């Protein structure tokens, strides 16, 4: 036989009646108490703006783990951020009022830079989507470049070589005649396509050449000789420029781009304008201009 213990039911303890508390109603999303500032956290429950360091909403207590962050306007991002000032060891921070003028100047400078950036961006967009504005901007840029080139040209000075070496020419037409600044003299030499003639020019000191004026042929008998059509200017800085010439007796001006810090030049005739039944090449003058 199995013995079964009787089950004794215990009576519950007496409980003092409690006041029933009303459940809080749902929080409605309303307008924030102040205008949210960039970087603040917007509560998804009530719409209040909160400091980025807060974990819970200051108005309704809701968690801010998934709160929306107020973004900074694109034009405000153009402003330069001010770096925190690092004081040297043993120094003290400035007293109130010290450096007020400097801070005002820096603040104004930042605003000016931001304004210039906005203007440049606006003009760029306008020029990109509005053809008349693009044409106007292109014309103005061209005018400014032309003025700058004009000022640069007035600052250039003639560069005179100290020696000119090259193949012997006809009687009274030596290589140095190509650099003697006279228009009634010329360098005349034999033309050989397989071994084109060249001139080696030595300068007194390194200079920066900016342009060259070339007069081809012979001033007294232009059509009676072969004329240079393409010249190569090889410099002592291991760079070079190609000078394309027209078949005309007048002076021709050509810009030089790679002649910086030059102390010697080699002028080589690469191509010519032929003359019938003639085997001599004529070159009246080469004028160099630069800074130095």
From TrEMBL:
Instruction: Please indicate which superkingdom the organism of origin belongs to.
Output: Bacteria
List the InterPro entries.
Answer: Galactose-bd-like_sf (IPR008979), NADase_transloc (IPR057561)
Keyword flag Cell cycle:
no
Record's keyword terms, sorted: Membrane, Transmembrane, Transmembrane helix
Q: Where are the transmembrane segments?
A: 112-130
Task: Name the chain's protein.
Answer: Zinc ribbon domain-containing protein
| Organism expressing this protein natively | Kribbella koreensis
């Amino acid at each position: 036989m199995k013995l079964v213990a009787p089950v004794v039911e215990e009576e519950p303890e007496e409980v003092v009646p409690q006041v029933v508390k009303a459940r809080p109603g749902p929080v409605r999303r309303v307008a924030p108490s102040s205008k949210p500032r960039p970087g603040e956290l917007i509560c998804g429950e009530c719409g209040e703006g909160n400091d980025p360091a807060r974990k819970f909403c200051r108005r309704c207590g809701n968690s801010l783990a998934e709160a929306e962050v107020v973004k900074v306007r694109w034009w405000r991002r153009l402003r330069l951020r001010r770096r925190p000032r690092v004081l040297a060891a043993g120094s003290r921070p400035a007293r109130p009022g010290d450096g007020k003028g400097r801070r005002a100047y820096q603040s104004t400078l930042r605003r000016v830079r931001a304004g210039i950036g906005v203007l440049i961006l606006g003009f760029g967009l306008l020029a990109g989507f509005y053809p008349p504005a693009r044409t106007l901007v292109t014309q103005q840029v061209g005018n400014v470049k032309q003025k700058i080139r004009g000022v640069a040209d007035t600052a250039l000075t003639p560069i005179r070589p100290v020696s000119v070496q090259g193949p012997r020419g006809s009687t009274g037409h030596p290589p140095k005649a190509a650099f003697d600044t006279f228009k009634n003299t010329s360098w005349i030499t034999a033309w050989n396509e397989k071994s084109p003639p060249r001139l080696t020019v030595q300068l007194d000191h390194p200079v920066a050449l900016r342009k060259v004026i070339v007069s081809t042929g012979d001033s007294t008998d232009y059509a009676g000789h072969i004329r240079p059509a393409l010249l190569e200017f090889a410099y002592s800085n291991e760079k070079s420029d190609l000078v394309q010439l027209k078949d005309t007796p007048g002076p021709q001006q050509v810009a030089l781009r790679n002649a910086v810090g030059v102390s010697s030049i080699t002028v080589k005739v690469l191509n010519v304008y032929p003359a019938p039944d003639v085997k001599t090449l004529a070159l009246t003058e080469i004028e160099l201009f630069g800074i130095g």
